[in-house]
């Protein structure tokens, strides 16, 4: 079972919490919130998200030249969080804790809500189901949704999943306030949007994510094997998934690469989006949606989706404007300390300008450039890295993305039209409105 924590009366951290909290009769305490890690300060978030590769330069340099590159692949694990990640962590913390406020296990109403979810989703009448869903929406405010957008390579997916990893994915409760409390809580689930815009594909990903979280590796207990079969209808799969989400008290649902839905037929995209939102509405699970700016086009096509995704705001991870950007400079400084050729070069302002010009500040491209440049240098017997090796890495390893990078370097929005993922979120939304107006004029 991944990241499981058992919360018992004997647990030192939980015992301390119990000792300083009033009794249940005095205030309404919530074990699901208490079992989560403490709220982090901004500097703690930055330290915890920072990932330095297991790379000892002196050790690598002692190896034969042709072997060093095999050790240097660890450089790909380098992750330096952007300043925006601190804000994103704070929002995710609010969503996760706030989502459990109305799902307190010691309250009778929470148990009634779980039974209500089962009843709603197992209703045979579609009209009845829709009516019950509407009633559920009026019982309490719908869970909020937070949106993160950024170009491919900005580190949004990795950052969000690193933030989620700060929380144990599974928490096993056994006792609370000296009373028996047997439940398994899945604090968060993270899945990728289906490539083909298939509702069934999304549901299978969800079942597989629950299996992984619970440590189920096939067999009759596997939710994929139970409900992933073709003969099980999509409606039944949705019903079962809703019950699973309610039973395991899923605290937060993260859907990544949502821009994939913009690449399929609009009806399929709408179906997947509706399932995601309906699941969140009924089970009261907060949402985090992430993807390139292209995803805004999908969200803007649905009033319900647009309304929901504006509830908790969003964060756009746009590119740095110059080689003096603090995060970019920190990245370059970190890379400077991971040179595995015989001699190290000092990365000065000229180097930073070249690296920025080629990578446009995208961390994934920057790391790839620096890593491949050292490989080319080693294969040619060079003892020190030169700018010519950076040129070579850019020409050979970034050839397919040259046009997109050149469009970014031009800073000319008219050139972004050839690459929809490069267009800012607001431009994507304006595109949707423009197409809608054109369609209305034609009709």
Automatic annotation (TrEMBL):
<keyword id="KW-0067">ATP-binding</keyword>
<feature type="domain" description="ORC1/DEAH AAA+ ATPase">
    <location>
        <begin position="145"/>
        <end position="299"/>
    </location>
</feature>
<protein>
    <submittedName>
        <fullName>ATP-binding protein</fullName>
    </submittedName>
</protein>
<keyword id="KW-0547">Nucleotide-binding</keyword>
<dbReference type="GO" id="GO:0005524">
    <property type="term" value="F:ATP binding"/>
</dbReference>
<dbReference type="InterPro" id="IPR027417">
    <property type="entry name" value="P-loop_NTPase"/>
</dbReference>
<dbReference type="Pfam" id="PF13401">
    <property type="entry name" value="AAA_22"/>
</dbReference>
<dbReference type="InterPro" id="IPR049945">
    <property type="entry name" value="AAA_22"/>
</dbReference>
């Amino acid at each position: 079972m991944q990241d499981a924590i058992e919360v018992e009366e004997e647990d030192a951290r939980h015992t301390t919490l119990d000792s300083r909290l009033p009794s249940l009769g005095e205030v309404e305490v919530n074990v699901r919130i208490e079992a989560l890690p403490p709220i982090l300060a901004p500097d703690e978030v930055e330290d915890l998200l920072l990932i330095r590769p297991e790379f000892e330069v002196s050790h690598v340099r002692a190896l034969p030249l042709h072997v060093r590159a095999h050790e240097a692949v660890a450089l790909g694990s380098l992750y330096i969080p952007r300043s925006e990640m601190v804000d994103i962590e704070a929002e995710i913390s609010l969503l996760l804790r706030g989502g459990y406020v109305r799902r307190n296990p010691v309250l009778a109403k929470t148990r009634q809500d779980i039974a209500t979810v089962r009843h709603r989703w197992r209703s045979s009448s579609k009209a009845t189901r829709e009516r019950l869903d509407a009633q559920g929406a009026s019982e309490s405010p719908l869970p909020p949704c937070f949106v993160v957008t950024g170009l491919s390579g900005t580190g949004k997916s990795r950052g969000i999943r690193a933030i989620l990893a700060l929380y144990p994915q599974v928490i096993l409760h056994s006792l609370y306030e000296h009373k028996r409390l047997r439940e398994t809580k899945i604090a968060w689930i993270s899945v990728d949007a289906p490539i083909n815009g298939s509702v069934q594909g999304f549901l299978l990903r969800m079942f597989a994510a629950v299996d992984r979280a619970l440590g189920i590796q096939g067999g009759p207990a596997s939710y994929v094997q139970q409900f992933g079969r073709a003969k099980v209808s999509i409606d039944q799969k949705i019903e079962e998934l809703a019950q699973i989400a309610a039973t395991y008290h899923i605290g937060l649902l993260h859907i990544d690469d949502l821009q994939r839905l913009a690449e399929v037929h609009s009806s399929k995209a709408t179906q997947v989006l509706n399932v995601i939102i309906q699941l969140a509405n009924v089970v009261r699970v907060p949402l985090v949606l992430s993807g390139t700016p292209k995803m805004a086009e999908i969200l803007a096509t649905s009033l319900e989706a647009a309304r929901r995704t504006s509830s908790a705001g969003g964060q756009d991870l746009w590119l740095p404007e110059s080689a003096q950007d603090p995060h970019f400079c920190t990245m370059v400084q970190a890379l400077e300390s991971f040179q595995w050729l015989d001699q190290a070069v000092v990365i000065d302002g000229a180097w930073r300008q070249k690296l920025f010009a080629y990578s446009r500040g995208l961390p994934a491209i920057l790391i790839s450039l620096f890593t491949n440049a050292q490989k080319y240098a080693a294969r040619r017997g060079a003892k020190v890295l030169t700018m010519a090796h950076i040129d070579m890495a850019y020409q050979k390893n970034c050839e397919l993305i040259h046009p997109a990078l050149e469009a970014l370097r031009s800073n000319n929005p008219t050139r972004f039209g050839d690459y929809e993922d490069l267009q800012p979120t607001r431009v994507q939304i304006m595109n949707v409105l423009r197409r809608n107006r054109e369609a209305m004029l034609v009709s």
